[in-house]
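Slide 14.
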Amino acid sequence: MPAPTPVFFLAGGTGISAETLGNMMLQQFPTVTFVRRKIPFITSIDRARQVVLELDAAMTDSVTPLVFSTVSDQEIRAELQKTACAFIDLFGSHLDTVERVLHVNAAHDVGALHGVGDLRRYEARMKAVEFAMEHDDGQSLRNLENADLILVAPSRCGKTPTSMYLALQHGIKVANYPLVEEDFQTSDLPRPVRPYGAKCFGLLSTAARLSQVRGERRPGSRYAALSQCSYELRRAEALYRAHRIPSINSAAMSVEEIAAVIMQTLRLNGVG
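Slide 15: predicted structure.
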């Protein structure tokens, strides 16, 4: 069996962008095993030199590590490119293209890459996170009129991670509402979200996947039984269809993919 390929994600900031973009590429190689490591906050030449030593130490005669970088500082980036590993620059060459098109030199500001440099966008994202936390799993029904989106789904279909991702990455205020037993006994939308049907989006799963996820939390329970999961998903799908609520099956989708579909379907732009 071939040795795993080391993968490094380098960044001048948190490394979220390097990880996201790099992993999008790695997903195209499902037969290859990767060992991933993120190295964030590379903000000096000295640190870059230390990182290059770490990268090159992972080289072997049979395996060449992959390095994905979103470092924006030109001097630091040039130092990192001295590695013997395969260096994929996710920032530099594309930034050069944008500079040529706009006829304006980039600021090379690390904070701006993640929205920190724009205080308005940053504050909007933090307020969205607070909103999502307050309205997670139906904990609060206050101010639903201020929600940009209301996720409706049976328990454990991915409402919480999707809500938090949309809030943190895009500044979208998301409330999520869990469908419970009494909701499955009627074709009406649950009373708290009934006035906001246009903001609702439904999540589904497969019965097998939902049973597996629930079983990790409550093994052997009726809650995790395949028959119960199948029943809830059928009733949820019928509810969405009756009220023309768009929905997707989240079983085999990443949170990034789920978020992208929701934003496109409901035409949500976000702030980031």
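Speaker note: The domain at 119-266 is CATH 3.40.50 (Rossmann fold).
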